[in-house]
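User: Here's a structure from my thesis project, written as structure tokens. My advisor, Dr. K., wants to see whether a designed sequence matches the one we expressed. Can you design one independently, without my sequence as a hint?
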């Protein structure tokens, strides 16, 4: 007898299996049985059947289905599939009738919508679709039909083709660039061959000037060749540029310097800041402005940092990152009134920069958080909401992606207090990831016990003690890696609570003498924590206990942690801010902020976050070099 027989969950699994096998007859039987049972997930089975029957259902069937299940997470996904069917039929009137209700983001449907609007408005609305063109990535295949119409109507001009050609090459999307070039009268077979030649050997292209020097596309190919050289060697790229500088106008020269500066800044080359200054005649991207600011920060060039932040669009300069560093720069300039105003506003925000801003203020000026603890009545009422009941059933069946979508519905547009109620419900069900994510969303009223839960405390405490690592740091790593979900698995194969890569786990197991270790053990809590804390201690030992560098090493490897050091000692926050990989940069900031908060949660000796981040020694630190060499 099935373990789900009393609840009907076994029938849901049968329905899903029928859907996966595209067996609409078996699925229809399951739909009827689940409806008879009034199972909470019966609508999902009906949704799967509608997907399989998409070619046969009528507009009336679809409308009735979407009305009946409005508010379910799958409703908009089904609406999107129906919109694609209508678009392929060029049934634009029906498409535009439904499209305003579509909430998800799908580039294919966005292109269809632009095509639909143009069809019913005699092509007069094509101009608004240009944002779809200016993307440095491949768009869905159907977007090409839209682009054909835009080009025929002269909405996409030759200048627009060259602009996107540049964007594609900057991201090294050669196939996309070749496709764009084919749209131009100049995009003949010779140009296609030149693109391949530049991609194969950028240095040869420049040395022998094999690309066309007179056409717009030829000049963009020389810029691409220079960009490819700059990816690995700034000096070589600059030398090559000097040889062909006469080919370019002022904007193209500035574009070269902007690309050179970006790539050099990501390698922490001191010349990057000056190269950015030579890019004054071209529009810098958001990424370039970020790295322009980081280049100034890396040199503690506070005046320069303020200049760059002032250049940023408001949306960018208003980010917590640049508000904090602007305040730090103002403080250095002794503009304390404006600096403290920025620090005070940041200090009410509960994240890495908020904690750092708090430490810049006198204790009396710090904003005190409002705490809220929900009662059982509120939690039990939340548990009875329809999307919560569905999320619970989906979690029970390990349909975790669908469960998270239902959870999003359940927690949308809630007040801070209601979010805390939801987080408490999730925590009671040991859905620690959802508890953390939900509690993290509060703005003014908070519950830090839910934001920073402490499950598996005995295991954590013992493992941290055995490896002599900070327990708060262990919790900080795990909160970021897996949100305490032991079944977590990343796209690159990292597994378990501490997201350990199989090769790392095997290496640690050999080091500790576990002859019977196999990868199936990675999801065992005790094993995973033991392996992870051993590796944490190993990385900490390599960097003389420097926690920020060890955190980088845990995520990106010890060699990169060392590579990103400066020629002079760096404040830990500056080192973290200038990590080239965005994933690692954000990871380190979040882990260190987590550890800072867990120190308080665990009742350990508290130290300021800035002190925890510490000072990163210079690359030529003999003690550090010796330690690294002995461990490599």
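Assistant: Designed independently from the structure alone:
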């Amino acid at each position: 007898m099935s373990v789900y027989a009393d609840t009907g969950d076994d029938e849901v699994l049968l329905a899903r299996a029928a859907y996966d096998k595209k067996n609409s007859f078996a699925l229809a039987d399951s739909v009827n049985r689940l409806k008879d049972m009034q199972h909470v997930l019966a609508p999902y089975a009906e949704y799967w059947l509608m997907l399989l029957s998409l070619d046969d259902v009528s507009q009336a069937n679809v409308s009735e289905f979407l009305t009946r299940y409005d508010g379910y997470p799958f409703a908009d996904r089904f609406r999107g599939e129906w919109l694609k069917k209508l678009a392929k039929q060029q049934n634009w009137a029906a498409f535009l009738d439904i499209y305003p209700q579509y909430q998800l983001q799908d580039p294919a449907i966005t292109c269809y919508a632009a095509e639909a609007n143009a069809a019913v408005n005699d092509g007069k609305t094509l101009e608004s679709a240009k944002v779809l063109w200016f993307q440095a990535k491949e768009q869905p295949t159907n977007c090409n039909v839209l682009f054909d119409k835009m080009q025929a109507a002269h909405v996409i001009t030759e200048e627009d083709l060259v602009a996107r050609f540049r964007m594609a090459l900057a991201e090294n999307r050669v196939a996309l660039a070749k496709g764009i070039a084919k749209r131009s009268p100049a995009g003949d077979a010779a140009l296609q061959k030149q693109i391949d030649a530049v991609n194969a050997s950028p240095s040869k292209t420049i040395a022998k000037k094999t690309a066309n020097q007179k056409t717009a596309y030829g000049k963009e190919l020389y810029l691409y060749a220079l960009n490819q050289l700059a990816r690995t060697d700034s000096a070589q790229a600059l030398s090559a540029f000097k040889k062909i500088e006469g080919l370019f106008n002022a904007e193209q020269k500035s574009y070269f310097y902007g690309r050179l500066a970006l790539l050099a800044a990501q390698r922490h080359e001191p010349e990057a800041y000056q190269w950015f200054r030579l890019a004054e005649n071209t529009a810098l991207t958001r990424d370039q402005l970020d790295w322009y600011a980081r280049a100034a920060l890396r040199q503690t060039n506070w005046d320069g940092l303020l200049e760059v932040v002032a250049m940023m669009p408001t949306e960018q300069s208003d980010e917590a990152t640049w508000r904090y560093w602007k305040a730090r720069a103002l403080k250095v300039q002794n503009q304390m009134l404006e600096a403290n105003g920025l620090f005070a506003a940041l200090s009410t925000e509960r994240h890495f920069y908020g904690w750092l801003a708090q430490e810049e203020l006198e204790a009396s000026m710090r904003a005190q958080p409002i705490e809220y603890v929900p009662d059982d009545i509120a939690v039990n009422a939340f548990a009875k909401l329809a999307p919560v009941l569905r999320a619970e059933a989906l979690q029970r069946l390990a349909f975790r992606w669908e469960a998270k979508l239902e959870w999003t519905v359940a927690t949308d547009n809630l007040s801070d207090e209601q979010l805390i109620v939801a987080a408490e419900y999730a925590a009671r069900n040991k859905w620690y990831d959802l508890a953390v994510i939900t509690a993290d969303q509060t703005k003014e009223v908070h519950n830090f016990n839910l934001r920073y839960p402490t499950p598996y405390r005995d295991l954590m405490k013992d493992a941290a003690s055995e490896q002599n690592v900070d327990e708060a740091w262990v919790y900080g790593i795990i909160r970021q890696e897996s949100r305490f979900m032991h079944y977590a698995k990343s796209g690159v194969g990292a597994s378990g609570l501490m997201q350990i890569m199989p090769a790392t786990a095997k290496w640690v197991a050999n080091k500790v003498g576990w002859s019977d270790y196999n990868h199936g053990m990675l999801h065992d809590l005790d094993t995973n924590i033991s392996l992870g804390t051993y590796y944490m201690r190993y990385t900490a030992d390599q960097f003389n206990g420097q926690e920020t560098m060890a955190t980088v090493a845990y995520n990106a490897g010890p060699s990169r942690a060392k590579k990103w050091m400066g020629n002079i000692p760096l404040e830990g926050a500056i080192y973290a801010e200038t990590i080239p990989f965005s994933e690692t940069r954000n990871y380190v900031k979040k882990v260190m902020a987590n550890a800072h908060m867990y120190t308080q949660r665990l009742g350990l000796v508290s130290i300021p976050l800035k002190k925890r981040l510490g000072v990163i020694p210079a690359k030529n630190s003999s003690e550090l070099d010796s330690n690294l060499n002995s461990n490599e």
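When you compare it with your expressed construct, this may help: The CA atoms of residues 195 and 571 lie 44 Å apart.
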